[in-house]
Amino acid sequence: MAYKKILTVQDISCVGQCSLTVALPILSAAGHETCILPSAVLSTHTAGFTGFTFRDLTADIPAIAAHWKREGIAFDAIYTGYLGSAEQIAYVQEMFATLLAPGGVRIVDPAMADNGKLYPAFDAAFVEEMKKLVFSADIILPNITEACFLTDTPYREDYDEAYIDLLLSRLRASGAKTVILTGVGFRPDVTGVMTLCGDEKRYYAHKRIARGSHGTGDVYASAFVGAYLHGRSAYDSAVIAADYTVKCIENTVDDPDHWYGVKFEPVLPYLIERLS
Ligand code: PXL
C-alpha cells in the first residue's frame, strides 16, 4: 500500500473530536505519515460549547513554512480544514505553491459553515478568501451550506436534483476541479454524497441517522484523504469515507452524553480493513 506524506492544516480543538484530533489519528490509521500545522488552538470546538478559548496561530505560520522549505521538506498532499483567520488563507496558498512534491495534491475542506449558517468565528470577508483557496484546489469537500456560500447561492432546506446540479455547475464555473459534495439527501431517511470528477457526476446514497453529529465533516474528509492517497478513485474514496462515517455515528448514537463528537476511534479497524 502507498505510504504518503500528508500535511494537514486545521485547528486543535483540545476537546471536541474534530479537526486535528480527528485527522491525525485517521490519516495515521490509514497508513500515512501525517504532518500537522495547527491553524489555531481552542479549548473546545465552537459548535455547542460556550466560553471557549481561541488562540490564532496565523503569525507562526510563515516561519514554520520557511523552515520546512529550508529543510527541503515536501508533501504528497496538503489537506486543509478549519482555518484560524482570513489572513492565514494566503499563507496556505503559498504552501500549495512551495511545499508540494511534484504531482502533490491540494485538498480543501472549506470547514466554515453548516445548516445554512457560518460557524461563529467567520464572516463574509473570510468566505471571500476561502473562495480563492477552494478554487485553486484539486479536490474540495464542501457540504451544501458551504457550497452555497462559495457560489453566492441562497441556502435551501428542501431541494431537488436540479438545485444540486446548480450548485455543482456554479462551483465548476468558478474553477472547482473535483467536487465531493456531502450531506446530499433527496429523501428524509437518506443522505449521501455527490461527486463530480471531470464530467462524471455520481451519487452514493447512505443511511441518514436522525441525530445531528458534530465533527462528522472532519471524520469524513480525513477518511476520504486517507483512501484517496492510497490511490483509490475520488468516487471510491467518497464511498469508503461515507461508510466509515455512518459507522462512527452508529457507534455514538445511543450515548446522549456524547453530543459533541463521534466515537470514531473504536471503528478505525473497519476503515483499515476497507483500505487493505
Ligand atoms: O468540525 C468543524 C470544526 C472544526 N474546528 C472548530 C469548529 C468546528 C465546527 O464548529 O468549531 C473549532
Would you mind describing this structure in some detail?
- The chain has helices at 20-29, 61-70, 86-98, 124-134, 144-151, 161-173, 216-228, 234-250, 268-275, and strands at residues 5-15, 33-44, 54-56, 75-80, 100-108, 113-114, 117-118, 139-140, 178-182, 190-197, 200-207.
- The mean pLDDT is 96.
- It starts with a strand and ends with a helix.
- It has a single domain (5-269), classed as UDP-N-acetylmuramoyl-L-alanine:D-glutamate ligase (3-Layer(aba) Sandwich), CATH 3.40.1190.20.
- 37% of the residues lie in helices and 25% in strands.
- It is α/β, with parallel strands linked by helices and 276 residues long.
- Strands 3-2-1-4-5-8-9-10-11 form a 9-stranded mixed beta sheet, with helices on both faces. The protein has a two-stranded antiparallel ribbon with strand order 6-7.
- α1 runs parallel beside α7, α2 (61-70) runs parallel beside α3 and α5 (144-151) packs across α6 (161-173).
- The protein contains 9 helices and 11 strands.
- It is globular.
- 3-hydroxy-5-(hydroxymethyl)-2-methylisonicotinaldehyde binds next to β1 and α7.
Question: What is the count of DSSP helices, taking H or I runs of 4+ residues?
Answer: 9
| Small molecules held by this entry | 3-hydroxy-5-(hydroxymethyl)-2-methylisonicotinaldehyde
Q: Classify the helix fraction into a percent range.
A: 25-40%
Beginning-to-end CA distance, first to last residue: 8 Å
Task: Write out the CATH superfamily name.
Answer: Ribokinase
Q: What's the β-strand tally?
A: 11
The shape, in one word, is globular
Oligomer: single chain
Overall SS class: alpha/beta
- How much is the average pLDDT? 96
How many structurally independent domains? 1
Strand content: 15-25%
